[in-house]
Every structure is written in structure tokens, then in C-alpha cells.
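Follow-up to my earlier ticket, as requested here are the two runs.
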Amino acid sequence: LEENALEGNIPSSLGHLSLLKTLSLSGNRLRGPIPPSFGNFKNLLSISLARNYLTGPIPPSFKTFLQLQSLDLSFNSLSGMIPDFLGQFHNLTYIDMSNNQLSGHIPISMLNLANVQDLSLNHNQLTGTIPEQIESLKSLTSLSLSANRFIGHIPVSISRLQNLCSIDLSDNFFMDGIASFFTNMTSLQKVKLSNNKLKFDLSEIKLPDGVSSVDLHSNQLIGSLSRILNNRTSNFLEVLDVSGNQISGGIPEFIEGLSLKELNIGGNKIAGHIPSSISNLIELESLDVSRNHITGTIPTSLGLLKNLQWLDLSINGLTGKIP
């Protein structure tokens, strides 16, 4: 029944369909709590109630979903804590409870779910720290915990999630360094840790081969750009955003063969000039070096970037003519 214009509460009588294996009511205008009668769905493999206006807690009646493989409750107004009984759903491969009003800690029981591949708890009101036992989620390929109220350190145990392709821990209150954090995460492609309180030297960061997108903006990073832009892993980078930090030094010379499409280094303490080798970034679509201490003239080689769609050189010390 997904993607209709169904309104009102979910009727309790739906629970009479006790042999259901798949239930999707997503993309409607349903309101109110999830009815307790859902506990009759003992054979359920997949449930999606996403993109409605549902309220109240995740009901205790869900504990009967022992065969469940996919759970999507995202984009509602569900509140309360994530129930411990979710840790009994050992067949789960997909969990999305993002964009709700869930609170409390991540229950330790959830870390028993060794088959979960995709875990999205972003945009809630979750607190506390990420449990060290998160390394037990051996099958995890995508982890999103952004826009919550997590604090403390990012546990080193995350680096032992060998299948992880995408991690988003942005918009929290994580602190301290992660310089060698991702070295052994050989499947990693996308990293987003922006808008935290991370403190480390960017020149010491070690990224594994294959990382295509790194977003570290709005932290407290120091150091220079040279290593992250000119080492053997840089050939895979398509997106780099380190804006809004305390990075210093100059903009390094750009070698040929880089795949960068978006480069944002705005709002730092970068000095010196824009190198003419910027023209080696032949795939570049967006360049932001604004709000730094860059001097000299605008290099004519910028005109060779045929794919460039966005250019921001504002609030620097550039002189001379517009080429």
C-alpha cells in the first residue's frame, strides 16, 4: 500500500493478516501509534512504515518479528528508546530508523546483529558514546549515525569493520584524533565526519586505497594539505571537503592523474598562491578556496578547467586582473 494518500491511524484489524511476510505502508499520511496488533505478524520478513506521521514508541509487540530481515521506520515522529529486543532479530540485514525522535543510547543488544549490512540511525536524539562492541557488526557496509548527540571518542573498533564502504558520523560531538583510523578499512569509499570537534593533524591522515569522498569540514583540524592531495590514495579521491578548520601552509602542486571533482578548502589559514598546476585537475567541477590568506594573481590555467561549474575565491588577498 505504499506511496498512496492513506490517512488516519493504522487500523488494529490489519493484525488479523497473521500470515503476512511483507508489509509496506510507506509514503502515506498515516498518523498515531503503531497498533499492538502488529505482534500477530510472526512470519514477517520485511516491514516498512517510512515517510508517515507515526508517533509514540516502537511497540513491545514488535518482539515477535523473529524472522525479520528488513526494518524501515524512517521519517516519522517515533520517540522513546531503541528497544533491547531488536538484538534478537538475528536475520536482520537492513535497519533504517533515521529521521525520528528516538533518544537514549544505542542498546548493546543491537551489536549482536552480525548480519546487518545497512544501519541508519541518523537524525534522532541519541546520546552517549558509540559502543566499542560495534566491531561485532561484521557484515556492515553502511553506517550512518549523523545528526545525533553522540560524544566522546570514535571507537578504534570501527576500524575493524572490514566490509564498511560508507560511514557518516557528522553533526555530533566527537573529539580527538583519527589520523591513522581508516588505514585498514580496505572497502571504505565514503567518509563523512564533518561538524564535530575532531582534533588531528591532516598531514598525518592515512586513507586506504579506493576512498572517493572525504568530508571533514567544520572540525578543529591542523596541518597542511600536501599529503592528503599528493599520495598514492589521492588518485581515487573525487570529493574532499576540509573547509572550516585551522589548516595552514600552502596549496600544493597538483600532479596529473587526480580524479578530484569537488575541492573545498575554504575557511582555513592557507596562505601562498594558487598553483598553475591546478589545471591538472581536469575533472574538477567545484573549487572553493574562499576565506583564507591566499595572495598573488588568479592563474590563467583556471580557464583550462572545462568542467568547472562553481568557483569561489572570495575573501583572500588576490591581486592583479581577472584572466
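Run two:
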Amino acid sequence: MLTTGQVALFKKWSAEKRLISIIVRTKTSFFLELEDFHKPRDVALVAFVSKKTLITDGALACFDLILFFDPSRNTYANVHNFDEVRIPDLEQLGNELKEVVDLGKLQLIYGNESAAAPVCNLRQLLGLKGPYLSDISHIRNKNLVKEIALKNGIPTAKSVTLDFANLDLEIPTLLSKIEQTLGGYPIFKRPTSLAGCQGAEKIPSRRSLKQWLSRALRDGDKQIFCVQGFQKTPKSDDYLLVELAHRPAGSRTNSVCYKSCGISQETALLMSHIDPTYRPRADPYWKRPTELALWFPQRKGVFAEYTPLPEKENVKSEMETKWLKPLGTILEQPKDINKHLLILTLRCEDRHQLLKDAKWISDNWRPSLKAN
């Protein structure tokens, strides 16, 4: 895994530095600009990321070394929950590092939720400081989160837990149990041990629920599911707890966080691990923009040309586009909600005009695609 030069570098750091921190990220998106990031001089900071990762110059300058792993060897694509994720190259790195560095100085950080299991397991294997999977199960597992919320009087979504590997109820009994508990359709099924909305699916009717239950029981589904409702009243803000987001923020969340309060969550994640005196603060160069970002989901078709933006007579705000796919891309109908084609950012000091423009765009404009 490590070259001769990299081995020498780790040995040097082990002798000279207070800490060798390695952050592991399974996503192909790297960190953003890491605003207000100031790495202590007595720390060596290493990123361990996929070979497919695109890295900006600003983020690159924050690290002493970037190591790349082969994503084709990971188990990520075929797992039923994140506890099963493995990164063989990370395991190999751990085996090599234990021979060349003082393990008391080695720190592992996970940079997104699907990296938690590989990092926690390697921590435990090497005897490193930091939480193991058993230490964070109560905030990663939706069932355990729900139990804690209920005990503390926090309003939570009605739910039924289905463990198909240990379920001996017949389908009619299951249907009745779910309908009596949740009270009506649509309902949503969510794996207990995947992040966010991954694996979630809307179930609009009894027929759809019966089809899913039949398939899951027939196939012996390994995942444990919560079947939930989440909102008391349609078109209201009367929401109920569904899950906790125990993971570093993704690019959408982090960009909103920085723009709204001047603190980069990615900077905070790294600094809180490597600098014991760190306290989050607003970046002194930050200025809150008056803007709104519209994320347009991917649709089936061919991305043949950039769609002209609305005329100024219809949209007064300044507009900025960030196309997420290259021209000529053949797009399939997406199977998850994180597939997007365009981020359209509107900027206007007049908040009323900003919202008016966003409404006009949502009603009248979207990226055009050719049929394929």
C-alpha cells in the first residue's frame, strides 16, 4: 500500500509529531474549501480517499499527504447495512502502519457515515483511542434512537420494526399489525442501519405493502426495517423524529452551514480531532449571502445542451449554474434521491424577490433533456 518514500515519511512523523491523523472518506466528493482551517504544526494530516475523488487546490493545501484506495475492492455496493462495509486497502494500511509508527500517536477519523465501520473496526484491531462501533450504536441504529426518544418524551414517528430473518408472522397478520399501528397510507420503509434516506421507499397502498412483504419474506431479507409515518398533518410543520444524522455533513449541508453562520462543518470535524483547544467560530472573512439554491434532480434522457436561463423579465435575481454532469451524458432514471443534474443558485438582497423568483423557476423552468 505504502511506497518506500511514504514509509519514510510516516517514520519521520512518528518521531517528530504529536499526532498522525488519517481521515477516511468513502465518497468520491472531497472536502470543500475548508474555510478557516489552521492545522497545528505538530500534527501530520493524511486523507485516505477513493481514486475517483476530485480534489480542489484549496482543500489539497490542507493535507500533508493524500493516499488513494481502489474503490472496486470495497464491499459498499452490496451491503445490507453500514456495519458490513469493508475497505481492504485500509486494512492493509493498518497492517503496514503498525510496523512503522507509534500507535499512541495514530488517530483515525471517519469522514462520512459509510466509513464508520471500517474506521471503528481498525481502531479496535490496533487498540487505538476513539469510539468503536458498539460505542455509537445507540445513535446509528434507528430502532435504538426511537427507544431513547420515546423514553425521554420526544415525539417520534409511528413505526413497526420488521426483522425478516426472525419473523414468524403470516402476511395477513403483518398487514393488520402495520395498518393498525400507522393508521393509513402512504407509509415509508427505512432500513435501520443505512444513512439518511438510503434504502428508503414510499409504500402508497396496501397492495404495494403486500408485494414488498411477500418479496422480503421469500428472499429472506437480511436488513431490519422500520416502517414509518413521519408527519401528523399534511402541509404543516408538525413533524416527528425519524432519525439522527450521526455523520459529517455532506456538500449540500456543509455549504448551507458555512453560508448561514460562517462555520465550515468539515473544518470543525477536522479541527476538533487534531486541536484540543479548538472552538468553532465564524470565519472572519465570512459574509452571509442572501441566496437560495435550487437542486434539480436527475431524469432519464440525454444531457445534450445547457438549457438557457430564464430571462430577466421573469427572474430578477442573479443566477449561477453548477452543472453536475458533462454534456453528452446519458442519464438513467435515478433510483436514489441524491442524483442531481444542476444546482441553480439565486442571489438577491431583496428576500421577497428571491422567493418570488424561486417560485417562478419551480413553476416554469427546468433543465431540458433529449430522449434516449
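The only thing I checked on run two: The first strand starts at residue 19 and ends at 25. Let me know what else you need.
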